[in-house]
């Protein structure tokens, strides 16, 4: 236990203090842990390779295709069209709720960083047009992006956790949507009521020129393409409750997350690419750029898998599970707590979630905990109190031109509320199902 704790501390120091790339830090700490735990040198190398391969084997297709879909949704103007439609639906009086719904819909196919950069100019345009307080109007939209990033597949961290716990991607998505709605409302519009007096003058530098309305795809095409993964996963999940139907075999095939994402990308290639006048070469170029953007995320996930495998093959995972059982804590709360502590120390939600999963996985094998709820519990914990060691903290501060104090009061507290409300939602849902 002391060796594992020391290795996690070293991992934190390498990433936060020494500024070592998380992927390299995971590899170094994995080998260090294996050596200290007495593993043979040959077996250590095999464990690292197996951990990386097993973790990425079931995920690489989902993450890569998810990045392609998100990139095309952004570049084609579909995200801007969704925002435009939502603004028209909600009007000036309820514009904040329009931004929240927009952020959530766009946050499903887009990775967090892309969604943030894409949505902030929209927030600023609304703020300037209606002379509204920037933080109080913008934070709820970013809360919805954050919840989608931490709770909902096919985002990298929840997708990786589903694979690690052998959960069901569709059920995790359904449960995640149930918990996400109240979490976004409380951490977004409700909490934003306390932030109206924060003075913020967003920098004009960060405003972008929108695509002309006439050049945008249709609203129907934009919504359907962006939400197609959700619709397909939900449909196939619901079909499981009606066994023996004529389309069961087809729905089982279509319900595989990798197939869902492949179908979604194929549809997007036509609806947001070829039918919009793009050549196949241009669309493929967009996809290539998207894969380059997420290369490091993929490597970090693989590195976390290496550490998990070292802990498993050395036998220390069973020891950890035995010690954790003596704490007399509900496993769902324990998973949340471990992820929250690592998140506060490291700053990366993805690293926090994957590291916590490696620690809690052996306990899951010994208990009857719902794996889909554990994904959401760890996902909520991994969003805990974003502060100065999280790039998202500085993006929000600089884009909104805030002091560190006001950034903590707004951004950091919003993320903390997401973590706590998400945990409460998981615990309540656990009592119901």
Automatic annotation (TrEMBL):
Which coarse location class applies to the principal site listed for this UniProt protein? membrane
Keyword Transport carried by entry = yes
To which protein family does this belong? Belongs to the GntP permease family.
Q: What species does this protein belong to?
A: Siphonobacter curvatus
PANTHER family, from UniProt?
A: GNT FAMILY GLUCONATE TRANSPORTER, HIGH-AFFINITY GLUCONATE TRANSPORTER
- GO MF entry, a single one: gluconate transmembrane transporter activity
- GO cellular component entries: plasma membrane
List the subcellular locations: Cell membrane
Supply the alphabetized keyword list.
Answer: Cell membrane, Membrane, Transmembrane, Transmembrane helix, Transport
How would you describe this protein's topology in the membrane? Answer: Multi-pass membrane protein
User: What is the protein's name according to its record?
Assistant: Gluconate transporter
Listed Pfam families: GntP_permease
The UniProt transmembrane annotation reads: 28-44, 56-74, 94-120, 132-152, 172-193, 223-242, 254-274, 294-312, 332-360, 372-388, 408-429
């Amino acid at each position: 236990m002391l060796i594992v704790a020391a290795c996690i501390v070293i991992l934190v120091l390498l990433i936060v203090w020494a500024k070592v790339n998380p992927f390299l830090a995971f590899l170094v700490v994995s080998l260090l842990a294996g050596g200290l735990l007495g593993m043979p040198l040959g077996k250590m190398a095999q464990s690292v390779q197996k951990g990386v391969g097993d973790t990425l084997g079931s995920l690489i297709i989902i993450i890569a295709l998810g990045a392609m879909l998100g990139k095309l949704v952004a570049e084609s103007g579909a995200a801007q069209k969704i925002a435009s439609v939502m603004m028209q639906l909600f009007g000036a009086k309820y514009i904040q709720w329009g931004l929240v719904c927009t952020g959530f819909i766009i946050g499903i196919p887009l990775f967090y960083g892309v969604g943030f950069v894409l949505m902030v100019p929209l927030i600023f345009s609304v703020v300037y047009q209606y002379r509204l307080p920037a933080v109080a109007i913008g934070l709820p939209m970013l809360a919805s992006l954050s919840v989608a990033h931490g709770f909902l597949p096919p985002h990298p961290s929840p997708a990786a956790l589903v694979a690690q716990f052998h959960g069901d991607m569709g059920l995790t998505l359904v449960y995640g949507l149930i918990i996400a709605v109240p979490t976004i409302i409380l951490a977004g519009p409700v909490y934003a009521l306390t932030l109206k007096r924060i003075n913020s003058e967003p920098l004009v530098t960060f405003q972008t020129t929108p695509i002309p309305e006439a050049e945008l795809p249709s609203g129907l095409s934009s919504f359907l393409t962006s939400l197609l993964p959700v619709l397909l996963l939900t449909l196939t999940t619901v079909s499981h409750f009606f066994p023996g139907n004529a389309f069961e075999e087809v729905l089982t095939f279509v319900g595989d997350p990798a197939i869902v994402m492949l179908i979604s990308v194929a549809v997007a290639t036509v609806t947001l690419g070829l039918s919009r006048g793009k050549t196949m070469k241009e669309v493929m170029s967009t996809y290539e750029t998207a894969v380059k953007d997420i290369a490091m995320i993929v490597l970090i996930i693989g590195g976390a898998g290496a550490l998990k495998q070292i802990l498993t093959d050395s036998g220390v995972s069973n020891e950890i599970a035995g010690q954790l059982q003596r704490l007399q804590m509900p496993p769902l709360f324990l998973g949340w707590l471990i992820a929250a502590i690592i998140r506060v120390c490291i700053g990366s939600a993805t690293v926090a979630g994957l590291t916590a999963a490696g620690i809690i996985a052996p306990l899951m094998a010994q208990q009857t905990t719902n794996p889909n709820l554990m994904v959401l519990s760890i996902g909520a914990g991994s969003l805990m109190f974003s502060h100065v060691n999280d790039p998202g903290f500085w993006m929000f501060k600089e884009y909104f031109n805030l002091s560190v104090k006001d950034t903590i009061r707004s951004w950091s507290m919003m993320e903390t509320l997401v973590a706590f409300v998400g945990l409460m939602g998981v615990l309540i849902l656990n009592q119901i199902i």
